Amino acid sequence: MEMMEDEERREDSHVDASSTAKTPNPNWTRFGGLHQPKTSAPKTSGTKTSRLGTLREEDSTLTPTSTLSDAPTFTNAINGGKPPRNASADMPPPPARAIITPEVWNDDGYFDEKITVENEREEAFCVYRAADIGIIPDGDGKTVTTTTLVCLHGCPYSSLSWAPFVKEFRNKCKTQTKVEIYAIDLRHHGESISMRDGGSDFSLGRMVEDVAMILKHLFSQTEIDRKCVLIGHSMGASVASSLALREDMWTKNVNDKNKISLAGLIVVDVVEGSALKALPMMSLQLLNRPTSFRTMRDAFRWCLGFGGSTKSVESARISFPSQLHQKSNGNSSSFSDSNSEREDASSPFTFRCDVVKTEPYWKEWYLGMSERFLSAKTSKALLLAGTDRLDTPLTIAQMQGKFQMVVFPNSGHAIQEDEPEKFTQVVQDFLTR
Question: Active-site residue among 70, 269, 298, 418?
C-alpha cells in the first residue's frame, strides 16, 4: 500500500523517459521481476501467457495495468482487470539463485534485545533494541548523555525494516556519544498483533498514544539524560511528526532528573501533498496484492518483483519475513524469531497486517502532516526518493532553510532498505550537526 507514491512518480517519469532514464539493474527484467534465464517453451496455439497464468485469446485480452514494480505488467481484462487475490499461487518458481534464506532479528549486527511492552489494556507491543553503539567516553564522574533513535516503520512494514540501517550504523558509527536505537512494531504490524480492537483501529491518535506509552515505559527504566531523535518512514513519519508536538513527552526543565529532550525529527519518503493526491489510486493497488503465498520463496519473489517492497535482496531477508506469519495446527509462527518453526508446505504464508482495514485511515494519516512537521521545534530532515514529491508548503520552507532535504534518486519507497549505506551516512551527519 505504501508503495503508491512510487507508482505516481513512475507515471510522471513516463512523460519524458529520456530525461529520467537510469542505468538498469542487470538482475531485474524489464517487468520488474528477478532475472530468469531464457528457456524455450512449446508454443500453444490460441493462448497467451501472462505473469498471472495462461489466458485464452478468444476469451480475454491483455491490457496493461500499473503495478508497484518498475514497469507495467498485465492482468486479465475479463474480470475487470482484477488479478486473483491469491495471485502468488500461479507464479512459476523463482530461479535457483533467488532462493533466499530469511534472517532473524538477533543475527550478528542487527538488534541486541527484544522487548515486550504492555499497556493498561493488556495489549502487547514488540520493541527491538540495539544498545551501546558509538564511542562511550571514559568515566570521569560526569553524566553521559545518550542519543536515542526511535524508528517508526510504514504500513505494512515492520520494525525490522530498520534492521539494515541498524547493522550499517553499528559498522560505521562516528558519534562521540553513546547511541541506542529502538524500533517499534506499531499496532497490527510485525509482532504487535495481540490487540483488543479486532484488528481494525489504525487511527493516528491511537498510534501516537501507543508510541508515547512505550517510550515513557522504556525511558523510565533508566535514570539517564537522553537526546531523542524520531525517525519515521511513511505512515510512521506521520506518527513521529505528531509525537514531536507532544509537550508531555519532552523535558523542558534543565534541573529535572532523567531529562528527555527532542533533538531531531527525520521524515522518510512521504509528503502530504503527494500522499493525498495518490489516495484515489491506493484502493486499486490493493487489487494487485495477494493475500497468501505457498512458500517463502514465492513471498520473496513477490517482494522483490511484483510488490516492490525493496530492491535489496539482503534487506528483504531480514525485513519481509517479519510481515508474514504461517498458521500450522492452529498456531501462528514466523521467521522473525530464531526459534520459529521452518516452512510447512501445507500451510500458506499470510500477511500480518490486513492493509484493506487501513483504508479508512489513509487520509487521516497524512492530512496536515506538512504543518506538523514544520511546527516541530527541533532540527528536521526530509529524505526523499524524488524531488517531485515536495508540496507547496514544504517547497517554501525548504527554500527558507527550515529543514534539511536529501534526495535518493536511485531508491524506492523504503530508502532505509534500498540504500542502507547512504541512509546511514545521512543520519550520522544529521546527528553530528
Answer: 269
88 annotated active-site: no
DSSP code for 285: H
Q: How remote is the C-alpha of 131 from its chain's centroid?
A: 22
270 or 68, which is more confident? 270
Contact 310, 412 (CB under 8 A): yes
Mark whether 269 is an active-site residue.
yes
CA distance 162 to 151: 7
Is the whole-model pTM more than 0.85? no
Alpha-carbon 332 to chain mean position: 22
* Residues 298-319: tens digit of each pLDDT: 899 899 887 878 989 999 999 9
Catalytic: which of 159, 234, 322, 334? Answer: 234
**Predicted local distance difference test score (pLDDT) of residue 39:** 40
Q: Are 3 and 154 in contact (CB under 8 A)?
A: no
Q: Are 182 and 128 contacting, i.e. CB atoms less than 8 angstroms apart?
A: yes
50 φ, ψ to 5°?
-115, 175
Mean pLDDT computed over every residue of the chain: 76
Of 153, 233, 325, 413, the catalytic one is 413
The percent of residues above 90 in pLDDT, for the chain, comes to 48
- Confidence band (pLDDT; 50, 70, 90) for 85? very low
**Residues contacting residue 221 through CB under 8 Å, at least 6 positions apart:** none
Is 325 a known active-site residue?
no
Of 272, 279, 280, whose CA–CA distance to 389 is shortest?
272
144 Cβ contact list (under 8 Å, min separation 6): 136, 137, 177, 178, 224
Q: Is the pLDDT of residue 238 over 70?
A: yes
Question: Which residue, 78, 94, 87, is CA-closest to 51?
Answer: 87
State the CB neighbour count (10 A cutoff) for residue 227: 18
How many helices and strands (H and E) does the chain possess? 13, 16
Residue-level pLDDT at 130: 95
